[in-house]
Amino acid sequence: AAKAMAATASSTSFHLSARANLGFRRLKTSTSAAEASPSSKLTHVLATASRAGYGRRRPSTVPDCEPATAEEIASLASFIGSKERLLVITGAGCSTESNIPDYRSPTGAYSSGFKPMTHQDFLKTEANQRRYWARSFVGWRRFAEQTAPNDAHRAIAELQRESNVWRLITQNVDRLHQVAGAADVLELHGSTHDVQCLACGAVSCRRRLQRRLADLN
């Protein structure tokens, strides 16, 4: 589920919780919806979004939540339709239906005692760097090759193409927004799909590095 949506033009914000997620199963609306007014089409898209994931088995990484009510959908559609430009901000909750756990929910990564290594700790010792890359090497395939965009990523990409979404900012490093078709994504924490040499600054593809690590080990 998309974590939040905020307007930039008027500094007004509308926070979107997991109960009103932006994912939807069928991006192409029905003929009747497509021929309707922009506001009713938007309401149709958001209503479809709110039902995504319900009635089917959800991944264990998805926190329990209730679908959005009709009133919440109407409020969100009205908010989106009334703004000239929208800024969409997403966090870990957007990728939970892609089998990537969030951090702070009851079943999130922190609940198991996981502590991510900070950049400062990574730089301190060679032992820390070896530990980081050993863990990264093992987890890469599940993270990068066994995940795919979910309804939320596709919905946001569709809203970017069809409505007044001006910019997309994400805290996520999985690059699933781009795979879903989103453009001009600002990645606040970078991406796990690129790596940079600390000595010379050269940037290379993480997937190629994975193959090099496999050959060397």
Automatic annotation (TrEMBL):
It holds the Pfam family SIR2. It comes from the Eukaryota. Residues 63-217 form the Deacetylase sirtuin-type domain. InterPro entries: DHS-like_NAD/FAD-binding_dom, NAD-dep_sirtuin_deacylases, Sirtuin, Ssirtuin_cat_dom. The keyword Transferase applies. Keywords: NAD, Transferase. GO terms for molecular function: histone deacetylase activity, NAD-dependent; NAD+ binding. This is Deacetylase sirtuin-type domain-containing protein. It comes from Micromonas pusilla (Picoplanktonic green alga).
